[in-house]
Design goal:
The chain has 15 helices and 15 strands. The chain has 3 domains: 2-127, Immunoglobulin-like; 141-261 and 338-379, Rossmann fold, CATH 3.40.50.300; 263-324 and 386-442, no CATH class. It has a 6-stranded mixed β-sheet with strand order 1-6-5-8-9-10, with no helix packed on it. A 5-stranded parallel β-sheet has the order 12-13-11-14-15, sandwiched between helices. By secondary structure, the chain is an alpha/beta fold.
Length: 449
């Protein structure tokens, strides 16, 4: 027996539906967009101050089962329901078949169907429900969210999920391509539908593979939009910033949101993120398989560090800067393509309301003052960090500090100058970050005159 973490993407209050106590509505889809399959679900639950439902996966031989729980504790308006849109990663490897059972808090049990693996090793969902249509009726806007890791992509995803007409999933890596080091392992482990990854090293064939894969990506996202009943469906994966030519060639009507942050702040944030991964989940770290470099990052002591200590190793500094500059091609493409939106982390910090409105306007959605307040309540730093104020540091938390300019606390002036030169050699667009202070002074002087 094992517990399956349930990743809730969004909740939404429904005032136009009535469900009897102890009952529920549930739509399920088995998705296989990139890696291991996951179960996407939309549950509509009745008004309750303490609602608990359990979704169980029972093996065919009844020798094993896994479960995940819906627990919703909130006072709802009378005659209201709540919709929960969630994702569960499935424990499929142990058995060839799983039966899906939903159990309500009253003990009512419903058989939802069966998961099984076919002759090709691909998992399928055999539902007892009427088969859902492949596409939601009406126009659906596809949006991709990308940018360098730790540039604000997760923050933007959470903001997007607060709008009732938009859902952002992640990270499905629908257009991601494996690194050369991971290609051999991928070929050994991936099931047949992911053959397109095999052409990573064959540049002439990459576009053709993307065209085949885009059809699946679009179908998956439209199915999710249909279940969640939204008109804008997005997927957030940082690696999309490196796949823009393939995305717009194969899905020309889609939109792309590129997340940007001061590259040196990204470098510092990424350093802490990789350190946490190396301590808790080293298999997820994106650092090179170099024991010397990994030990250097893992053994960093934040409480004892002085400015400059973090990047004494120049290889680490170069690695973090280059990672922070991923997706630089988005800037030149944005000058020619109206379907690319650049959103700066610092604008979300300093001008949250106008930036959020502009973000949703780009997606074709409106935001009134009431909705903006709700979005702010659920996505400001304290809400995301467990109650800490911005600037209150927790090096072990995904949302660590929530401020701009933090690199100055960890880098010396000479390191900053070195990083500035390296950054501008790679991408001139970032000059605006390094010269912002220099430009601000003349404007202030002019105002005084």
């Amino acid at each position: 027996m094992a517990f399956i973490p349930l990743r809730i993407l969004k909740t939404r209050l429904l005032t136009n539906q009535v469900i009897a106590a102890g009952d529920f509505k549930l739509d399920l889809r088995l998705m296989q967009p990139a890696f291991e399959p996951f179960l996407f679900m939309s549950a509509v639950l009745p008004n309750s101050s303490n609602l608990i439902c359990s979704l169980q996966f029972r093996s065919d031989d009844l020798a094993d089962y896994h479960y995940c729980n819906f627990v919703f504790i909130q006072s709802l308006p009378e005659s209201a329901c709540v919709q929960i849109v969630a994702v569960a990663d499935l424990p499929l490897s142990a058995h060839a078949g799983w039966n899906l059972i939903m159990i309500t808090q009253t003990g009512k049990e419903k058989n939802l169907g069966r998961l099984y693996r076919d002759a090709y090793g691909v998992w399928n969902l055999e539902s007892i429900r009427v088969k859902l249509p492949d596409q939601k009726q009406g126009p659906i806007q596809l949006v991709f969210i990308g940018g360098a890791p730790k540039s604000g992509t997760t923050w933007v995803e959470k903001i997007a999920n607060q709008h009732p007409d938009m859902l952002a999933t992640g990270e499905n890596n629908l257009f991601a391509w494996p690194s050369p080091d991971g290609l051999a392992a991928l070929m050994e482990s991936a099931p047949p539908p992911y053959y397109s990854f095999a052409v990573q090293q064959n540049t002439p064939f990459r576009t053709q593979a993307a065209m085949c894969y885009a059809g699946r990506a679009e179908r998956v996202l439209r199915q999710i939009a249909m279940i969640a009943d939204v008109c804008v469906i997005a997927d957030k994966s940082p690696a999309y910033c490196s796949s823009l030519p393939e995305i717009f060639l194969t899905l020309p009507d889609s939109k792309y949101i590129h997340c940007v942050r001061h590259p040196l702040d990204v470098a510092v944030s990424r350093f802490f993120h990789e350190r946490n991964l190396l301590i808790d989940r080293p298999e997820l770290s994106l650092l090179p398989q170099d024991r010397r470099l990994r030990d250097y990052v893992r053994q960093f002591e934040n409480s004892k560090a002085k400015p400059g200590d973090m990047f004494k190793n120049i290889e680490i500094l170069d690695l973090m800067i280059d990672s922070a500059l991923e997706g630089c091609g988005a800037f030149s493409m944005a000058q020619k393509c109206h379907n690319i939106y650049i959103i700066k982390y610092e604008d979300l910090l300093n001008n949250y309301g106008a930036t959020v409105r502009s973000l949703f306007q780009f997606c074709g959605l409106e935001v009134d003052d009431n909705l903006l307040e709700i979005i702010n309540q659920h996505t400001h730093f304290a809400a995301l960090s467990g109650g800490r104020d911005a600037g209150d540091d927790d090096p072990t938390h995904f949302f660590r500090k929530g401020i701009a300019g933090d690199h100055k606390n960890y880098m010396t002036k000479s390191q900053i100058e070195y990083a500035r030169r390296r950054t501008l050699l790679r991408c001139e667009w970032y000059r605006t970050y390094f010269e912002a202070k220099r430009r601000k002074t003349p404007r202030k002087a002019a105002a005084q005159e």
